[in-house]
Amino acid sequence: MRIQRLLDYLKYSELANLNLGEVDGAENEANRLRVFNYIDRALATVNVEFNINQSEQLMFLQATRAKYYINDAKLIKLIAAYYSDGTELTINNENDQQSVFTPSLNIIEYRGNNLASSNVQDYLSLIFLKGFDNISSVNDLVAISEGLLECIANYVGYIAYSSVDMSGDSPAKYYYARYKEALVNAKNNGFNNDENTDFDRLTARGFV
Q1: CA dist., res. 18 & res. 92, Å (int)
Q2: 54 forms bridges with which residues in the sheet?
Q3: Where are the alpha helices (DSSP H) in the chain?
Q4: pLDDT (tens digit, 9 = 90+) per residue, 11-69?
Q5: Is residue 125 helix, strand or coil?
Q6: At a CB cut-off of 8 Å and minimum separation 6, what does 189 contact?
Q7: What SS3 class is residue 157?
Q8: Which residues 6+ apart lie within 8 Å of 18 measured at CB?
Q9: Is 106 within 8 Å of 115 (Cβ atoms)?
Q10: CA of 80: how far to CAs of 32, 113, 142, 197, 199, in Å?
Q11: What does pTM read for this prediction?
C-alpha cells in the first residue's frame, strides 16, 4: 500500500475534523510529520496483531555452541523455528529437548542437536516478526494488505484524537471501538496471526 493512498483515505474521514489532512508542501511539514508518526504507530500495532512484516534468518549450528543471535534492530519476536529438514520446532517449551528458547530479545538458545563436528551443515530457519521502517514520504510503500485499511485508519483516528481529548465520549473512544470492530472483521475474513506465517521461503528450499 502506498502511503498517499492511506492519506487520501484518512483526510476525508478520520482526520477530516483535525485540520491534519494537508501534508504536501514545506508549509505543512509539521502536519506531515505528525500524521506520519500516527501512521507509524498504527502500523506497529496492526503488525503485531497480525504478524505481517516477517523475515527469516538461517542460524547455522556449531559444535558445542548453544547460544546464537538474531541480528536485526527491528526484531519484535520469534514466530516460528524449523530444523534444516523442515521439522517445525517448539519455542520456549521446557518439556521439549528440541525446543528453541528466547531468553532475551535477540538471543536464541538451541541445545537439541549436539553436533559431533563443526563441519556438519545443520541449521535452523528462524521466522521472526520485525517492525516496519518509519514513514518518511507520501510515496513510501508498505507491504500491507488493503484488507487491513480500516484497522489502520481507525487506529490512526484513535491516536490523533487521543492527543486532543480523552474525556467523556471523546472521538478517541469512538475510533478505538471502531478499531476493535475492524480487528474482528479482519480476522473473520482470514487475517489471522496464528495462520499467517510466511512459508514461501521454506517451500522454495523443498520444505512441504
Answers
A1: 46
A2: 129
A3: 3-11, 29-50, 149-162, 171-188, 200-204
A4: 878 777 776 556 665 557 777 888 899 999 999 999 999 999 999 999 998 877 889 99
A5: strand
A6: 147
A7: helix
A8: 160, 161, 164
A9: no
A10: 37, 17, 23, 8, 10
A11: 0.80
